[in-house]
Request: fold
Amino acid sequence: MSSPEYGALQWIVGDGSTGVTLAAGNSYTSTSAAIDLRIWSEVLIHPQCNFKAAPADNVDVSIIGSMDGTFDEGTNGYHSDIVPLTSIKLDKGTDPNSLTIILNDPPPYLKVKMQQDGGTDTTNVVMCCILPRRKKLG
Reply:
């Protein structure tokens, strides 16, 4: 079985030429808007960090799924929309640092969160979602 060809690119943090700056302090988080994946059977998520010289902080990347697109905070203990599907640390030792995450049969909606793990640096980040050229069958 061959891999699908990829086509559409959607910027979900920054816009490709202009990134989002994560301010110093681990309480600042940049969260994308919900991504509608109801018709896609596979998606690639590609975060990238451009660290300052001699960085002190890594960047944590979380991918959060939702069945209905509301991203309920789970205050009643029932909803799991705030539990990440996966979390990855982009290490400050590689600059710029990026990776590609492949999600097969993703939940209908996603959002991503990028957050520094310390309170020293400011870091420029971007993230895109790459969609296959073929949609789900049926």
